[in-house]
């Protein structure tokens, strides 16, 4: 099976089977049946792609219900350090994060269920980041957490002086002061 559990329940690393020969390679980056066999039933409705240069940190971003998003993230070109932070208040891993290097070369993908803040740092000269979402973007429902919250101790794999942030990400609150994520019951 191409899925590998992480230290945080429901957060899964996906390594697709790659078929390579002298012509190049082929792999299925998503197959609904393969995911369903793992108990994952996303109804992806939106694809997003971002191009960034070395040192860019995007995140930590999330959306609150009813616009929470599960994501399947991967890198088409370059290399990033991808971070998922559990913000599900009732989770035993609330406040814990997981980081993994995703690259065009290793073809790894991370399945991030709803209830996680997400971000990444660009480790290569440039990177093209691609992700599928199971819900539409809603500005009214977006939230974020400061990438450098000292309580989280996230190592973004970059020297602090090389980090490039958007103005919006510079103003994100600390973990304990972020917009609460609560699933609708």
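Q: What amino acid sequence fits the structure above?
A:
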């Amino acid at each position: 099976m191409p899925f590998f559990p992480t230290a945080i329940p429901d957060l899964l690393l996906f390594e697709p089977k790659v078929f390579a020969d002298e012509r190049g390679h082929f792999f299925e980056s998503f197959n609904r049946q393969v995911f369903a066999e793992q108990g994952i039933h996303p109804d992806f409705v939106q694809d997003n792609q971002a191009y960034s240069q070395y040192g860019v940190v995007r995140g930590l971003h999330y959306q609150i219900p009813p616009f929470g998003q599960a994501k399947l993230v991967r890198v088409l070109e370059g290399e990033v350090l991808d971070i998922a932070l559990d913000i599900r208040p009732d989770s035993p891993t609330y406040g814990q994060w997981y980081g993994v290097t995703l690259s065009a070369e290793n073809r790894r993908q991370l399945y991030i269920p709803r209830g996680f803040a997400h971000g990444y740092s660009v480790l290569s000269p440039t990177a093209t980041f691609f992700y599928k979402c199971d819900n539409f973007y809603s500005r009214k429902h977006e939230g974020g957490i400061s990438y450098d919250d000292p309580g989280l101790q996230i190592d973004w794999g970059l020297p602090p002086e090389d980090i490039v942030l958007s103005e919006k990400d510079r103003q994100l609150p600390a973990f304990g002061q972020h917009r609460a994520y609560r699933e609708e019951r």
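Q: And what stands out in the fold?
A: The first strand starts at residue 3 and ends at 5.
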